[in-house]
């Protein structure tokens, strides 16, 4: 029996997709929301560190599985390797209802006004496709506000002198500092910096019918046992389903967007929970499957008008893959600085996001989420033993006597850092897999060197008896903060979509995830993805006239 035609299909029940589905459903559009994973609960994985951290990637306990999902990674020498979701290089995202918002760290940063105007602020950068966004912070600010109040954010921007302007405060008060953060706050003030509480997508008080956070240490990479972490799975998706206008289809893998000979998207092809090939038709298709899976879908959606993939006649889909180069410094202390109050990260500074003499951009610095014992085995000074008695003694002595200041720098986009598809390697369902290739821009290392030195200064001021810095290399970026592969813009020759996420060449096909990012800010991007979901959803609701968009 054929599926009933609907107004809109949304692919991906994560941050952007969950928001768009809700916006359309509450405004009367019929919606089918597809998710390759399923509903997940805390009880299925509880606080088992070895399950939730069976990979270095946050949230991998929630999929995808190794048996059906794989990718190709091209290394710096041009050699291709098949990588699985639990291996480095896969650039994984959780596959479940809520996506990464089920298990993320939940930092809730607004990008700064300069982050939307990097080319205008700093000029061109050789070897980079650095450009301005087609929208300004001021335009997106109402969507940030809506995300903060509908999803739920605890914070206080009045303590951050570098915070962008806002019309309403955060809906919940900030979290109090833990022992480590109090130490770091005092040290930052002595250095003349401006520490403040990190805005968080978790309840500091009871909010919208859900309880306050119990501040357990097993937070990052885990679902919340009391439902206090704020994601799309416990906010907007349930709201969409309550309208009876939205159907959620879990364990369904969308394989391609169907495009007719007039250049319109007519629906999607997908494999259902029993691996049967199905078709769902709709007036509008919205892709929010991540900055790796969204371009893969487009590139696999070939037709007479789009032989290189839907919306890809300009060869821009999949390019400019960015993530975040994380950098910082560790410190070891004589006294215990750990008090087991989760999630750990709660104090930050934004003194170095912009305005650094001779540099283009920068990034935040914050104390880190609690590193559980297994992950702590990877935190060692250079040349330390990684096994044996010395390794074990270090583990016992310093687990409660270490701290870290860390942050993401704003990477320079690179045209050849990209997602492609490879016809020679196919997934479980016979679809070409994503092939990832490219590298970071060399300029990123200048920023990571600068920010890591500031972090080390912070650790020393805290009284650390030993410090060392951490900096990434030039390998391909992406990871949980992947972005940029279907950038928005004002010119079809240099962007995949217009300012509303509408694919230039297919006017009823939209994108609503971090693929749209032109640059990725010096912040965790979750709140910006949520805001873009509201931005794209609002445009569709305003402009859709039942059979077409307003001309």
Walkthrough of the structure:
- The protein is α/β, with parallel strands linked by helices.
- It has one domain (6-369, 401-543): FAD/NAD(P)-binding domain (3-Layer(bba) Sandwich), CATH 3.50.50.
- Helix content is 22%, strand content 17%.
- The chain has 12 helices and 17 strands.
- It has helices at residues 15-26, 42-45, 49-52, 118-122, 137-152, 179-190, 236-242, 293-300, 373-376, 388-398, 443-462, 526-543; strands at 6-11, 31-34, 71-74, 80-83, 196-197, 246-249, 253-259, 265-271, 277-287, 325-332, 347-349, 365-367, 402-409, 418-426, 432-437, 466-470, 509-511.
- The strands form 3 sheets. Strands 1, 2, 6, 7, 8, 9 and 17 form a 7-stranded mixed sheet that branches. A 6-stranded antiparallel sheet has the order 5-11-12-13-10-16.
- The protein is globular.
- The two termini are 36 Å apart.
- The model is unreliable at 54-59 (pLDDT under 50).
Gyration radius from CA atoms, angstroms: 22 Å
What is the first-to-last residue Cα distance?
Answer: 36 Å
Structural class: alpha/beta
Largest sheet: 7 strands, mixed
Number of helices: 12
**CATH homologous superfamily title:** FAD/NAD(P)-binding domain
Poorly predicted ranges: 54-59
What spatial form do the alpha-carbon principal axes imply?
Answer: globular
Helix and strand sequence: EHEHHEEHHHEHEEEEHEEEHHEEEHEEH
Provide the fold topology.
Blueprint: E1 6-11, H1 15-26, E2 31-34, H2 42-45, H3 49-52, E3 71-74, E4 80-83, H4 118-122, H5 137-152, H6 179-190, E5 196-197, H7 236-242, E6 246-249, E7 253-259, E8 265-271, E9 277-287, H8 293-300, E10 325-332, E11 347-349, E12 365-367, H9 373-376, H10 388-398, E13 402-409, E14 418-426, E15 432-437, H11 443-462, E16 466-470, E17 509-511, H12 526-543
Parallel strand pairs: 1-2, 1-9, 2-6, 3-15, 9-17
Antiparallel strand pairs: 3-4, 5-11, 7-8, 8-9, 10-13, 10-16, 11-12, 12-13, 14-15
Helix pairs in contact: 1-7, 1-12, 5-12, 6-11
